[in-house]
Specification:
The chain is mostly helical and about 130 residues long. The chain is built from four helices and two strands.
């Protein structure tokens, strides 16, 4: 939930881009969750829209906001269905920078799962004591 402010900022950036480029029938799909989670409602909605030929363009603030791992796969599927993908903040990274970023993300995700699990158990234990 600490991502909400960032999500709001990203939506504003996309709104400005949409107005500046006169995009019509724009739908903003927002998800909060791990970049490794393939079960997010928004992600699955986007995938269905692509597969059903309901969209012609995807605009992202950053490539990794779509998926931390696997975004290239989804972008290629979109391209196959004639959907253009625009990435507003595209930075080229060296192989080493990309690898370091990926390793750090994996550690972050698993740490969050571990500590989230512990937090849930602790809350349950506290509630059981009452």
């Amino acid at each position: 939930h600490d991502q909400k402010e960032d999500l709001t900022r990203q939506t504003k950036v996309l709104e400005i881009y949409s107005k500046e480029h006169d995009l019509q029938n724009v739908e903003y799909i927002n998800d909060i969750g791990s970049g490794l989670n393939f079960k997010k409602k928004g992600l699955n909605k986007l995938l269905k829209m692509i597969l059903n030929n309901q969209i012609d363009k995807i605009v992202l603030t950053h490539k990794d906001r779509l998926l931390r791992f696997g975004s290239d796969l989804l972008i290629n599927v979109a391209k196959h269905f004639g959907v253009e993908t625009i990435i507003l903040n595209h930075k080229s990274k060296s192989f080493e920078e990309e690898l370091s970023s990926d390793v750090l993300e994996i550690i972050t995700v698993f740490s969050a799962k571990l500590y989230g699990s512990r937090s849930h158990k602790n809350k349950k234990a506290c509630n059981d004591d009452e």
